[in-house]
Amino acid sequence: MLSVVESIYTQHSDFRFPGGVAKALVLSMDDGPVQDRRLVELLDCYGIRGTFHLNSGRLGQPGYVAPEEIGSLYAGHEVSTHSVSHPYLDSLSRAELVTEVGDDRAALSRILGRDVRGHAYPFGACNATVIEILDELGITYARTVDQTRDFRLPDNLLAWDPSCHHSAAGELADTFLALPDSNPALFFIYGHSWELDSGEPTNSWAYMENLAHKLGGRSDIWYATAIEVADSIGAMPRTFDA
Ligand SMILES: [Zn+2]
């Protein structure tokens, strides 16, 4: 039943991302605030692609991007689900879970005219029931907020832990760039563009631009969205945990 989500993807040292590169970078940003407009512009300058997790119930509300702009705003990036209204999913009934995630997916897919298959857990909250429902809904991957502080490929795409929050990415960037190409490595950064308004040393627009400048425009990195990485991993031969 849960064979897919319980499967263990081994760290195939010979696995390579599309284009034959060993490294991939994903920026996974939540909530769809209006600050995404500035972030997309910045990422586009450096050839970095983002995954943007949106709450369809908040689109068009003050401080959030509007439904009519998301197709053009996020062109070249990924739009993914984040639930309709941003509740703690681990506090909901099964029926409520289907509504929150299924309706968000349907609304975003309808607006964009293409199937939206990814998810980021609001507040990072999930449990076995949530994961089971997402699997039944056909969600391909779901991102947590538990930071691994490393660059491993995920064991479980429906409990996909990021490398770190964007405020910690500066610390890890040099390590990622210096890794040899002998093993696949994924730098999976999550965060929120609205946080960059804080102006703190590791949470400002200047900080994000420095990070993008450092990580962008390299031939040894695949600049991917989360769904692209999930699909590439999903196509990899699997070894199931006995
Ligand atoms: Zn959120």
Notes on the protein architecture:
The protein is α/β, with parallel strands linked by helices and 242 residues long. It has a single domain, classed as Glycoside hydrolase/deacetylase (TIM Barrel, Alpha-Beta Barrel), CATH 3.20.20. Helices cover 33% and strands 14% of the residues. Strands 1, 2, 3, 6, 7 and 8 form a six-stranded parallel β-sheet that branches. Strands 4-5 form a two-stranded parallel sheet. Strand 2, helix 3 and strand 3 form a beta-alpha-beta unit. Helix 2 runs parallel beside helix 7 and helix 4 crosses helix 5. The relative contact order is 0.22. Zinc ion binds next to loops.
The structure class reads alpha/beta
CATH superfamily: Glycoside hydrolase/deacetylase
* N-C termini distance: 16 Å
Bound molecules: zinc ion
Number of separate domains: 1
Query: Could you tell me the strand content as a percent range?
Result: 5-15%
Number of strands: 8
**CATH class group:** Alpha Beta
Mind telling me the C-alpha Rg?
A: 17 Å
Write the layout of secondary structure elements.
Blueprint (H helix, E strand, L loop, with lengths): L2 H4 L16 E8 L5 H11 L3 E5 L15 H4 L4 E4 L12 H19 L5 E3 L7 H9 L4 E3 L20 E2 H13 L6 E7 L13 H11 L5 E3 L2 H9 L8
Parallel strand pairs: 1-2, 1-7, 1-8, 2-3, 4-5, 6-7
The protein binds zinc ion.
Quick tags:
242 residues, alpha/beta, TIM Barrel, 6-stranded parallel β-sheet, two-stranded parallel sheet, disordered N terminus
Summarize the structure.
With 242 residues, the chain is of the alpha/beta class. It has helices at 3-6, 36-46, 70-73, 94-112, 128-136, 166-178, 205-215, 226-234, and strands at residues 23-30, 50-54, 78-81, 118-120, 141-143, 164-165, 185-191, 221-223. The structure holds zinc ion.
